[in-house]
């Protein structure tokens, strides 16, 4: 009897041991597949971020050839009194608010129009999305040519119509507007895509019921469409705002931050601090401050979503 029970326990133990062995092997395989992603995360994301934070507390200028020296919060205190840095933040905020607002309105309007029974809808949609797949540096070069004072087609058109040519990129009062126009052309398709996807998820029955009740098109838009897509609009605004605040390639290619500092965004200002003046400590502090600002915007978005 005792021998029989022992044999049965061994039979039960063998499948359990086999199952445990299989689970361990599966875990090893999963960890093996995670190694490339974790390596990328550590080397490309976490390590540079930690090194940047370290730099922000040091005095390290590559021109002087000195080793990094710990200075505490000195770099942050200097940034608080740095008018050029504060101006670049204000410029980036203005650019972000204006460009994102225009892109949202245009993207939503185009999405509402395309969502109707339009002929060649697929072709029109593909054509509208084309600017979004072009790299920012190429977009900057394209619009630099379009806005060029002498050879640009925009000034050629103005001259042919009897108007005086504009200094699109060399006039401090117009240069930032030209940059906003470029960004609107480039990223309105992103807003359009998100808005169209959200609109097409709205049940058609809601509109049919509203029409039966005598609701106008405007009432359908304000009472059905907007409430149903407001979360998507909020996500689109947050994503686009964070991206617009960090814009670099277009102003770098089109104006270099000029004329003067008229189009010097925060990213371009950080670039100049790091790679023109080689002040790594100041550049690190600027990066930390800009990331903190973006994190604050994102936290406000999360609170708004929870409250809603």
> Which regions have little confidence, pLDDT < 50, spanning 5+ residues?
8-13
> Termini separation (Å)?
68 Å
CATH topology of the largest domain, by name, is MetI-like fold
Q: What's the average pLDDT? A: 86
List the helices and strands in order. HEEHHHHHHHHHHH
CATH class value of the largest domain:
Mainly Alpha
CATH architecture of the largest domain: Orthogonal Bundle
Give a count of the beta strands, DSSP E runs of length 2 or more. 2
Biggest sheet layout: 2 strands, antiparallel
Number of helices: 12
Residue share in β-strands: under 5%
* Count of spatially separate domains: 2
Approximate helicity band: over 70%
**Spatial strand sequence of the major β-sheet:** 1-2
From the alpha-carbon coordinates, what is the Rg to the nearest angstrom?
28 Å
Cα shape:
globular
Q: In oligomeric terms, what are we looking at?
A: single chain
Structural class computed from helices and strand pairing: mainly alpha
Protein architecture, described:
A two-stranded antiparallel ribbon has the order 1-2. Helices cover 75% and strands 1% of the residues. It is built from twelve helices and two strands, in the order αββααααααααααα. 25% of the residues are buried. With 308 residues, the chain is mainly alpha-helical. The protein is globular, with a radius of gyration of 28 Å. The chain has two domains: 55 residues; 233 residues, MetI-like (MetI-like fold).
């Amino acid at each position: 009897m005792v021998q029989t029970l022992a044999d049965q326990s061994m039979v039960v133990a063998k499948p359990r041991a086999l199952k445990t062995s299989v689970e361990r092997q599966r875990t090893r395989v999963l960890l093996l597949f995670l190694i490339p992603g974790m390596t990328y995360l550590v080397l490309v994301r976490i390590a540079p971020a930690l090194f940047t934070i370290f730099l922000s507390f040091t005095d390290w200028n590559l021109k002087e050839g000195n080793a990094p020296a710990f200075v505490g919060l000195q770099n942050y205190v200097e940034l608080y009194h740095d008018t050029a840095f504060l101006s670049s933040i204000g410029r980036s905020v203005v650019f972000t608010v204006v460009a994102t607002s225009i892109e949202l309105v245009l993207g939503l309007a185009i999405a509402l129009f395309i969502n109707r029974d339009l002929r060649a809808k697929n072709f029109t949609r593909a054509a509208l999305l084309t600017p979004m797949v072009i790299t920012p540096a190429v977009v900057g070069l394209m619009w630099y040519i379009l806005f060029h004072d002498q050879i640009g087609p925009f000034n050629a058109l103005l001259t042919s119509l009897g108007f005086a040519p504009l200094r699109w990129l060399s006039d401090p009062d117009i240069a930032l507007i030209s940059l906003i126009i470029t960004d609107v052309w480039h990223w309105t398709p992103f807003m359009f895509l998100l808005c169209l996807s959200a609109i097409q998820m709205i049940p058609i029955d809601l509109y049919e019921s509203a029409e039966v009740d005598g609701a106008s098109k405007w009432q359908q838009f304000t009472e059905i469409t907007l409430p149903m897509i407001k979360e998507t609009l909020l996500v689109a605004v947050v994503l686009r705002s964070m991206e617009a605040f960090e814009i670099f390639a277009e102003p770098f290619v089109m104006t270099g931050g000029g004329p003067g500092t008229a189009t010097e965004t925060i990213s371009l200002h950080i670039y100049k601090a790091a790679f023109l003046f080689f002040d790594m400590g100041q550049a690190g502090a600027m990066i930390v401050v800009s990331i903190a600002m973006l994190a604050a915007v994102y936290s406000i978005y999360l609170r708004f979503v929870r409250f809603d």
